[in-house]
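Bumping with the actual sequence this time:
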Amino acid sequence: MKPNKPYLRIFNTLLILAAYGYLVYRLTIFEDYFSFLTAFRTADIGLWLTLLVALLLMPLNVVAEAGKWRLLLRKTEPMTIWGAQRQVYYGYVGAFITPYHAGDYPARAMLLKDKGNFSAAVGVGLVGSIALLVVELIFGVPATWLFISYNPNIPMQYFAVAFIVLVLMLSFLPHLVRYLSRREWKNTQMRQLSLALSHMSYPLFMKTIAWSMLRYAIWALQLALTLHFCGVDMTPVQYLIAIPFYYMVVAIFPSLPALNIAIRGSWSLIIFGVFSQNTAGIALAVLFIWLINTVLPMLIGSILYRNGKTR
C-alpha cells in the first residue's frame, strides 16, 4: 500500500526543518571563527586552488555513491544516474540528524517511484554501507600498524577489539543474507527485502566494492587537499598512513553526522597530531570537510526535494 502523500510530504518537510535547525545550532556554538577567517585571508592562489578542487570533488563523490545506489537497485527499481543522485542528496538530509547515518537510506527510499520498494531499498543500501566499510578496513588495517610504528604509546587494543568484532560481523553477513532471501515472509515489506537480497551475487558485490573504492579515493584526496590548505605539512607517506587510519577509526566509532565537526575533530587531532603540531590547522581542515561533504550536500538535497515536489 502506498503511503498517504500529504503525510509523507509533511514528514519530509519536518525532516528538512530539523536538519536546518541543527545546522544553525552547530554553527551558533562554533567558537573558532577567527582561525576560519584567518585561513581565508592568508591563503595564496595555489592554496585557493587546492580548496577549490576539494570543493569540486564533492559532486563527483555523490556521483560515485549514486552509481553504487543505482547498481544495487537495478533489479528493484531502475533509475537514471540523475535520479539516483537526487535520492543520494536527499539521503544527506535524513542522515544529518540521525545517529550512525541511520536516516540516509530511508530518506532516499522516500523518493522512490514505487513506495512498496521502501524496505528493499533500505536493505540493499545497507549492503552498500558494508561494501564501503570493507574498503575502509582494507586500507585502514595496514595503515594502523604503520601508525603504531610512529607512535607506539597509543593504546591500540581498543581498535584491535573493534576490528575483530567487525570481522566477525562481516563473516556472519553472508549467512544472514541467505537466510533473509530464502525465507518465506508474510509481511509485504519483508518479501520485497527478501527479493532484493536474492539478487545479490559475488560479481555484484565486487562492483559495489569498486564504486566504494572510488568514493573512498575522493574522500582521501579531499582531506589531503584541505589539510594542505590549512597549513598541515606532512610528507606523502605520512598522508598515506594517517588518512586511511583516520577514516577507519571514524567508521568504527561513528556518530551523529551533525556532530562530526566535534567527534571527527577530536580523532583528527589524535591521529594527525602525531605528524604535525599545527592543531588549529588540523581542526580547521576537518571543519572544511564537514562543510563540503556533509553540510553542502544536505543543503542541496533539501533544495532538490523542494524543486522536485513543485514540478
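The C-alpha cells above came from a reply further down the thread. The mean pLDDT is 77.
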